[in-house]
Amino acid sequence: MQETKWDYLCTHESEKRYCIPKKTLAMIEAPEARYLTEQLSHLVKGNYL
């Protein structure tokens, strides 16, 4: 089965987008997933990725 863009949660940044498989997030508690998403946003904004 092919993975699609719907299988990923992506940060909405214009130049750099970082996507995490939703399967990975499904294994994480909601507050932690929110924290992870925020951290990814900060990383992308800081151009560390």
Question: Would you give an account of this structure?
Answer:
The structure is a single chain. The chain is of the alpha+beta class and 49 residues long. It has one domain. The chain contains 2 helices and 2 strands, in the order E-E-H-H. A two-stranded antiparallel ribbon has the order 1-2. Strand 1 (8-10) and strand 2 (19-21) form a beta hairpin. The radius of gyration is 11 Å and the shape is flat.
Summarize the structure.
The chain is an alpha+beta fold.
The number of helices is: 2
The strand line-up of the biggest sheet is 1-2
Helix content: 40-55%
Q: pLDDT below 50 for ≥5 consecutive residues: which ranges?
A: none
- End-to-end Cα distance, whole Å, is 29 Å
Largest sheet geometry: 2 strands, antiparallel
| Overall spatial form | flat
| Radius of gyration from CA coordinates | 11 Å
Structural class: alpha+beta
Secondary structure layout:
Elements: E1 8-10, E2 19-21, H1 22-26, H2 30-45
Main attributes?
single chain, 49 residues, alpha+beta, 43% helix, 12% strand
